[in-house]
Amino acid sequence: MPYLLIDDGMAENPKVVGLSDKAFRLWITALAYCARNLTDGAISEIALRFSGANSKIDRPKAIAKQLVSAGLWVVTDDGWQVHDYLEYNPSRAELQAKRELQRERQKRHRSKRNASQSRVTPRVSNAWQDPTKGVSKETPPAGNPYGPAGVTRDKALAAAHTLATTWTTPDSDTFALALDELQHQHGITLKALERETLWDTAHAASSNDETTAYYTSLEPTNDENDNKENTT
């Protein structure tokens, strides 16, 4: 990306202090034009018109005379030249050489990166792994890492839901093993969110069974009812 270098003390430079507002704007926009187009500080009449338009100046040639009188521009056969432009800014040849070096450096970097990537051997198998037996099974259909879709998977999910709603043991590890066995039977792999939802359902079901069992233990037995009747 082109850039422009300006002396940080230019605001106090005697050549700049006496400029009118229009002359200062034209000077800055013309400098930017030279840097952007790599003109080495040369300003043609076309460049002057562009710079004048960007500076909102109707008669840029008249303003250019002020810059020449101030010693900031020099009249040439083709237009004008910014005084000491190359003293503060790199030349067109220097910038092009620098950009070429950057392109070569990036090219070498990309070549090394592509070569290193081509030497990497994938270590992940495409075969589906049984979560309970550790035995490689048939590869699931392409594009679906969770096993067969459609009716087969719907039946498996329905079976998993039934398992969760009838679960009576508040033990997540045991429930996880049961889900693994179900996956093996149906040839699918449950998603993490599906497993979490099923465990929430199973946990709620087992908690309800525990609560029912607790209150049932508090109810008097038939023998206790008979004893109460005998004492009354």
Describe the structure.
The chain has 232 residues and is mostly helical. It has 2 domains: 1-118; 151-226. Helices cover 60% and strands 4% of the residues. It has 10 helices and 3 strands, in the order ααβααββαααααα. It has helices at residues 14-17, 21-37, 45-54, 60-70, 85-88, 92-118, 151-165, 172-186, 192-218, 222-231, and strands spanning 42-44, 73-75, 79-82. The chain has a 3-stranded antiparallel sheet. α2 (21-37) packs across α3 (45-54), α7 packs antiparallel against α8 and α8 (172-186) crosses α9. The radius of gyration is 42 Å and the shape is elongated. Residues 134-145 and 213-217 have low confidence and may be disordered.
What would you say about this model in short?
The protein is mostly helical and 232 residues long. It is built from ten helices and three strands; from the N terminus they run ααβααββαααααα.
Question: What does the radius of gyration come to?
Answer: 42 Å
Numbering strands along the chain, what is their spatial order in the largest sheet? 1-3-2
Q: Please give the number of β-strands.
A: 3
Which percent band covers the strand fraction? Answer: under 5%
What are the low-pLDDT stretches, counting only 5+ consecutive residues below 50?
A: 134-145, 213-217
Q: How does the major sheet shape up?
A: 3 strands, antiparallel
| Total number of helices | 10
The H-and-E topology, N to C, reads as: HHEHHEEHHHHHH
Number of domains: 2
The average pLDDT value, as a whole number, equals 78
Q: Kindly, what is the distance between the CA atoms of the first and last residues, rounded to a whole number of angstroms?
A: 103 Å
Look at the helices and sheets and give the structural class.
mainly alpha
> In percent, how helical is the residue content?
55-70%
Shape: elongated
